[in-house]
What we know:
3-stranded antiparallel β-sheet; 42% helix; globular; Aspartate Aminotransferase, domain 2; alpha/beta; Aspartate Aminotransferase, domain 1
Amino acid sequence: MLDSLLEKKLRERESKQLLRQLTTVNGLIDFTSNDYLGLAASTELFQLIDHSVKSQGVRKNGSGGSRLLSGNSELAENVESRLADIFQAESALLFNSGYTANLAVLSSIPRRDDTIIYDELAHSCIKDGARLSLAKRLSFKHNDLNDLENKMRKASGKLFIVVESIYSMDGDCCPLKELVPLTEKYNATIILDEAHSTGVMGQNGNGLSVSARLHERIGVRIYTFGKAMGVHGACVAGSKILRQYLINFARPFVYTTALPPHSVTAIDCAFNYLRQNISLQRSLVDLTHTFLNEVSPLTNRTQSVSSIQTIIITGNGNTIAAAKNLQDLGFDVRPILSPTVPEGSERLRICLHTFNTTAQVKDLAKELKQLARSDFKV
């Protein structure tokens, strides 16, 4: 009975060309992972982590429990203190992933009669976290501060504005310099997800808000380590009161087994490595400029200057075919389909990395321009 019900839903998805499958890719040039700085595959960082684990005498495979039971450690608290320094916050609190960090913040802080207003292109974890709260939920048009203000005028209770530094599907940045004073006008709290700016922006990788010198005016910041930092986990940065509140009220923190010591050490080592190799940020910027110059004739692109670039194809079938064409040529580029993105904005999502060569970027751009002359109607 259950399998019949599940199979029916799977067939419905397959008929719409939306069926997801786990795949492994070998031998293709990576233009799809979030490993922007190449740290996930860095042999040097791997060796640094291994040496640090051994030198600290870490002998545990796991943490053994939640942080409030047996899973806390001096190591975790020391790393949190160092992260707070990096992100120029009073405190930081580790989470197992950016997804759970967003769930924790949004499900525990806004209360009944409050209002959460999030950018319409916000990640699913933000929408899921808002759904778990008892607050009223509204979205505003992407990066449209006029629409946001209209929503704030009509909102009730305490206001929480949820945005991302860099948006994962369009690759564009949040207009923080204009957003912050607007939210202050309505006494609203900003919750900022720095997932795709962690590592690639700011001194020692501390993201957009610190580089813009606006961090002290933002109530909650979430940093993710599984993308440019090449490891795993996340943290919430903010006041000491915020940290203590999450320890007491955030269910994804209270009831989750803590990160193992190896993962905590890896986070610390990744930021130490980036500090010694901060030129990686400049290399990524230069490679992005090369790509943008090469694809400048293409008009169906989102307005991104980050390492996330998108080419709008339109139509799930066309987008799948375009991605398959590039993969056959040796480029690991994936299709992003509706309803993950709005219907009519299906696209190829291209991630640039410091390990991509200039020649590889130019070759990819050449094939994208060839697609523009094909039936895929780029």
